[in-house]
Amino acid sequence: MPALVNYVDLGRLCSISSQVDVFYPPRKRARITAPFVVGETLFEQSKQASIDVLPDECLFEIFKRLPGGRERSSCACVSKHWLMLLISIRKGEYESSKAVKENTDSVSDEDDGYLTRCLEGKKATDMRLAAVAVGTTGHGGLGKLSIRGSSSSSGVTNFGLSAIARGCPSLKALSLWNVPRVGDEGLSEIAKECHLLEKLDLCQCPSVSNKGLIAIAENCPNLTSLSIESCPKIGNEGLQAIGKLCPKLQAVSVKDCLLVGDHGVSSLLSSTSSLLSKVKFQGLNITDFSLAVIGHYGKSVTNLMLSGLENVSEKGFWVMGNAQGLQKLVSLTITSFRGVTDVSLEAMGKGCANLKQMCLRRCCFISDDGLVAFAKSAGSLESLQLEECNRITQSGTIGVLSNCSLKSLTVVKCMGIKDISSEVPLSCCNSLKSLSVRNCPGFGTAGLAVVGRLCPQLQHVDLSGLCGITDAGLLPLLESCEAGLVKVNLSGCLNLTDEVVLALTRLHGGTLELLNLDGCRRITDASLMAIAESCVFLSDLDVSRSAVTDSGVAALSRAEQLNLQVLSFSGCSRVSNKSLPSLKKLGKTLLGLNLQHCNSISSRTFELLVETLWKCDILF
Q1: Which DSSP category does 209 fall into?
Q2: For the residues of 320-354, what is the DSSP string, one character each?
Q3: Where does the F-box domain lie (predicted)?
Q4: CATH architecture of 484-620
């Protein structure tokens, strides 16, 4: 007889007198296959857990006494009703939180804010935020929250943000992008509960106004970073409150907020001048007055970016430079300004003694004279970037190189640059290490020859998109680089041949780490063979849309010294399934392999590569 079986319970034992006991078997249970109907009413028997009978007030008191985050998370999984009750409880209302506060020697790991959560698209809903609010408790606490929403009806609302506020007082960084249903109410709840907030990023939040921003300013004194973009209801009052009540503010970015004007910007700058180091203003209705305030009060500003300020004139930039307040400015970016002229540019060079990085984009009134004058006055300048400044010519760039100690020069889409040979003796710019000339169709052989004579210490060269350069023009530059080239980008240089690559590997194979030949359609297997023989430290190679074949891939795989990490054959139609063994061998060190648009490689070969090269990201 098996153990632990109670056979007596199979029947019933009854006593009919004090001396006689009678045993009888149990009755058979009736099988009911249809619901019991009385009249026209349907009765369905369902057992309900006894705790659900309790009113919400009782459940609220029970949940308040849960010992920790694990128990709260378990209860939140029971039902949506329980989840809603749990998120209605503030962190400080739990009995366990009160006990921790009373015991000064105890430390709670739930308030440290170690966790980061990001909700995007359809996953950004109130229910998910509620689950985050409950689930992160007891696991380090939520420190950073990013919401990348959508305009759908099920998106995040004030309710979800309020749940985060009540459950995550340790929140230090909040980013809200494209959440049209979140307004001042939700942001005010964050301000009310999350006093440790340090970073706030608002982008495309049309329902958030000055009221919400003022609430943040009044309750979050530790705020160090503020970014506002495309929030049409935020104006001067909000920025004034931030400047007045957030003394620790270090970085501010305001973009495309039409209600922001001089009063908001000037109040912000004048109130936070002691710590504010990073400033970005774009697409605002501010005038020369704001730039004068920046120049006077920006004593701690190290990074300044100004873009699309249509009401700012030459006078504003001239005053900003001559105010002599931007002595700590290291990086300055100016985009799309009619007010930037030769006069104002020279004034900024004189007024920013420690300026090291300068970027000018779409400043159509700057000429060679202004650029050279700026280079002479900005004695600390190390990096200069010019984009779509069409009045700048080759003479201007050569003048800059001859008159300052630049380390990096970038010229992009400057249509005024034409190929002019220069016989005038020029002083060398031995400091220049990086040269990038991209998509300037007028830059050609003569320009390369001048650069070769001027800059013998180049290590990084980017000539992408220069369709006009040839082997004869590039070879002198390669021969003049004494320090050894490390990174070379020749993508889109359609007329270059194997001769350039052979010279490059012969002269700089011992230092070359990156080589981009994307779109160089005349490059063949001879280049890959030269690379395999001479390049010791090459880690990134791109020969997309070239004429290389399986033989070139095989040559690369036979190179013992090669340690390639990124390799691209995108659009190489002559690389086929025959390269599978070679690619497997190369894949031992690869982290990235691009085989997109390689029409001669089959899906089966791709699957075999994926199985073998499990450490490598393969694009197909």
Answers
A1: B
A2: HHHT---TT--EEEEES-SS--HHHHHHHHHH-TT
A3: 54-95
A4: Alpha-Beta Horseshoe (3.80)
Cα–Cα distances (Å) from 307 to 277, 280, 354, in that order, read 18, 8, 22
Give dist(CA 532, CA 554) in Å, integer.
Answer: 10
d(CA 248, CA 276): 8
Those residues with Cβ within 8 angstroms of residue 23's Cβ, 6 or more apart along the chain or in another chain: 11, 12, 13, 14
The HSE-up count of residue 8 (CA atoms within 13 Å, CB side) is 4
Would you state the structure tokens that stand for residue 589, as one six-digit string? 């060190």
For residue 391, give the 3-state DSSP assignment.
coil
Q: CA of 389: how far to CAs of 311, 340, 367, 406, in Å?
A: 20, 11, 8, 19
Q: How far is CA 306 from the centre of its chain?
A: 20
Contact 264, 288 (CB under 8 A): no
Arithmetic mean of pLDDT, 8-20:
42
- Give the residue extent of every domain in the chain: 484-620
Average pLDDT, the chain: 86
**Residue 279: C-alpha distances to residues 155, 227, 237, 320 (Å):** 32, 10, 18, 14
- pLDDT, tens digit, 9 for 90 and up, residues 426-458: 778 899 999 999 999 999 888 888 888 889 999
Q: Is the pLDDT of residue 44 over 50?
A: no
Confidence of residue 584 (pLDDT cuts 50, 70, 90): very high
Beta strands in 106-180 (DSSP E): 115-120, 142-148, 173-177
- Supply the angle between the helices 550-557 and 525-534 in degrees, to the nearest 10: 0
**Rounded distance between C-alpha atoms, residue 490 and residue 465, angstroms:** 8
Q: What is the pLDDT of residue 167?
A: 83
Least Cα distance to 573 among 591, 593, 600, 536 occurs for 600
Q: Which residue has the higher pLDDT, 10 or 315?
A: 315
